[in-house]
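Progress note, project year one: complex with adenosine-5'-diphosphate.
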Amino acid sequence: MCEYILSIDQSTTSTKAVLFNSNGDFINQSTEEHKQYFPNPGWVEHDAEEIYRKTKLVISGVIKKSEIKEGGIAAVGITNQRETTVIWDRKTGKPVFHAIVWQDRRTSDYCSELIKKGLEDTVTKKTGLLIDAYFSATKIKWILDNVEGVRERAEKGELAFGNTDSWVIWNLTNGKLHITDVTNASRTMLFNIHELNWDHELLEIFKIPESLLPDVKASSDIYGEVTDIEELKGVSIAGIAGDQQAALFGQMCTREGMTKCTYGTGCFMVMNTGNKAIESKNKLLTTIGWKIGDEVVYALEGSVFMGGAIIQWLRDGMEFFKQAPESETLANQVEDNGGVVFVPSLAGLGAPYWDPYARGSVFGITRGTTKAHFTRAALESICFQVNDVLETMKLDSGEKIPELRVDGGATANNLMVQFQANISGTQVVRSAVAESTALGVAFLAGLAVGLWKMDDLQKIWQSDQIFTPEMEREKVDIHKAQWKKAVERSKNWIDKKD
Ligand code: ADP
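Model obtained:
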């Protein structure tokens, strides 16, 4: 009986292989971190060959641990860090350069030039994105322009580009498949999300030969078989989705208006907007949620830079505690924030304020303020920022968002999740499976091979705990007013250069 799905979660810091059974239960996982390279300030790279080596290791690791019998795995799904750019030689399989990671800012100046030239409108209309170094297009161009001989080889059709999903699949199939799915393609800044194809005008703007690009597939489909790994030989690769979209599906946000937020280092909120690509008036991103069969689901996405990172900073920078979970114990030592409001704009303010000149600020400190108040204010600040994105999404979409589904490391903190429910006035539902990303792509792969139908998935998905708003309206209003006031005062702190 083929009763397991194996998800590969190729993320920024590590690669995981996660096994689920046919009830969608988490069985086991194996994880390997990979090295982060910072060759210059603002540059971030990965070694793509190391990533594939680790992928093989974790796959073998999880299969061994779980004592799966031969033929027990029904399909493989792949979810990945989006935007990260790998270019390799089609003949030798060797990358021509390190992978340039989504966080890498080396092409920021070039992006500013494009904006000055007035290209943002064209790019946004076609791709749903804002011109930014974050997305793959300018990273590809950088490699073509800066690594010797690469542009000529690309023009001769000798090279292939992919995000890490394409890279892993190309290797798993010994170079047979050069593919990606619509969700990953929608983050390259080269893909027309309305027409669902690589856009020739954009390829022209970024000077990228089309022969580099992978074929774009649905997110759930039988693409081909694994050949490179003995234990998986002949198993279908049947699901691909970028990490945030996979989490949206893993949280079963399958109806219009359903929204999830993943609280990790940053917080990533994504709303299902059905078959409409909604253009944001507040600089949220429009993206593809998934494609199953012929049906395309669109999504709105907004992120908060400093989520769990603020707790990391209190731990490592301020040395308030040794482990992140202690933040909850400490915050529980006081009844409330004691009037302290923390704006964690340590790297500027994102949606909906967009002020790169803002810096972190703390207001309302008195002689009575302690570490506990400060920590409580920090946890609350994560929720205020998430709420700001939530309110923006409501405005852009006209949806009400009666429920927010949450996952990610920081949602272990009950005090924080309860505060989110209080401030947002919405039910906050924490999913039973913490690995929503891996579960989402397992669902997509399982659907393709007929292990599940959509109705089964609705039944399989379960919540761990539901948090309902319990703070009086008046108190909520005071909190929100204080937050707004504090944000206003933290804006425009550092001097502009020009
Ligand atoms: P990522 O995938 O971005 O590495 P994770 O989902 O593993 O993130 O979550 C880790 C983040 O969550 C860290 O930034 C950490 O500070 C924060 N975190 C973990 N546990 C808690 C907790 N109990 N309370 C608050 N923050 C936490």
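The domain at 4-244 is CATH 3.30.420.40 (Nucleotidyltransferase; domain 5).
The radius of gyration is 22 Å.
No further modelling is planned for this target in the current period.
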